[in-house]
Design a protein that fits this description.
Strand order of the largest sheet: 1-2-3-4-5-6-7-8
Largest sheet: 8 strands, parallel, barrel
Shape: globular
CATH superfamily: Aldolase class I
Radius of gyration: 18 Å
Strand content: 5-15%
Helix content: 40-55%
CATH architecture: Alpha-Beta Barrel
Number of strands: 8
Keywords: Lyase
Order of helices and strands: EHEHEHEHEHEEHEHHHH
Protein name: Dihydrodipicolinate synthase family protein
Mean pLDDT: 85
InterPro entries: Aldolase_TIM, DapA-like
Family: Belongs to the DapA family.
Length: 288
């Protein structure tokens, strides 16, 4: 079971939108140094929809190669085409990913039996532990009863709850090998205190050490410390989630010196965006 701070990794790109594989490798090393537990590759901020299958496959291969077993890499399989999901599952298994992630769109458009047969086919082809996610844009697309049923399928390793609403109080006790993850960072502190296995976060692209410390404090039962760290993180969460794209994250990483500026640095839409992001970074005590 993967536990801890899980970074929903944004893919660095060149000015033409193509993936910047060298910077990707730099970011993998940085997240290892910052104590992140795992990287989800290919799913953050809907970037995968803008990339070709070859680009997505190469991003995964590079990330796994660079990780060299130092950090878990979770391969995002999500696609609107089932054939592509099967191709990604096979590639993830071949490259040596630690697990795979599959986001179920809303509405799913399948009966529960059809859905479970589809998931079993993905599991059989890929051979990796499979983490299921609801749709970030339509939180809790799976009713809670389905989470309990999912946990009974051999090979399904966990479920990411992106909703601000808890689901754990509405389902029976889960198997020991099945994990709940919080995709809602604001409530992640209290969810880990209540037994969630980890926090999945886009904001951890910028503040990996802080999210890792938050998880560690909550997992150890230190509620006071966890809540203090959560308060530091919340202004950054609010600013980043206001913009559903990778530009603020890339801009912040350049300001922090974590990635090179390049010949075409990103520009935010409004002058106020720079000020808001700078204030949020300072509130989180992140040097810029």
């Amino acid at each position: 079971m993967i536990k801890g701070s899980i970074v929903n990794l944004t893919t660095p790109t060149h000015s033409d939108g193509s993936p910047d594989y060298e910077v990707l490798e730099t970011l993998v090393d940085w997240h290892v140094d910052c104590g992140s537990s795992a990287l989800i590759v290919g799913s953050a901020l809907n970037q995968s929809s803008e990339m070709s299958i070859d680009e997505r496959t190469e991003i995964l291969r590079r990330a796994i190669w660079q990780s060299d077993g130092r950090i878990d890499v979770i391969a995002d399989l999500s696609s609107s085409r089932q054939e592509a999901v099967f191709d990604f599952a096979s590639a993830a298994d071949e490259f040596g990913a630690s697990a795979a992630l599959l986001t179920l769109p809303s509405p799913i458009g399948l009966s529960q039996n059809e859905l479970f047969e589809y998931l079993r086919a993905v599991l059989e082809l890929g051979g990796l532990p499979l983490i299921i996610s609801d749709d970030l844009r339509a939180s809790n697309s799976l009713p809670s009863i389905d989470v309990a049923a999912l946990s009974q399928i051999s090979g399904i390793a966990g479920f990411i709850n992106y909703s601000a609403n808890p689901i754990e109080g509405h389902i029976p006790e889960l198997p020991s090998g099945f994990a709940l993850y919080s995709g809602d960072v604001a409530s992640g502190c209290h969810r880990v205190l209540n037994g969630y296995a980890g926090i999945v976060s886009v904001v951890a692209n910028i503040a990996p050490a802080l999210v890792h410390s938050l998880y560690s404090a909550a997992a150890s039962g230190d509620q006071k410390k966890a809540e203090l760290l959560n308060a530091r993180l919340l202004p950054l969460v609010q600013v980043i989630l206001e913009e559903p794209n990778a530009l603020p994250i890339k801009w912040a990483l350049i300001e922090m010196g974590s990635i090179p500026e390049g010949s075409h640095p990103p520009s935010l839409l409004h002058t106020s965006d720079y000020a808001d992001l700078r204030r949020a970074l300072r509130a989180a005590l992140i040097p810029i």
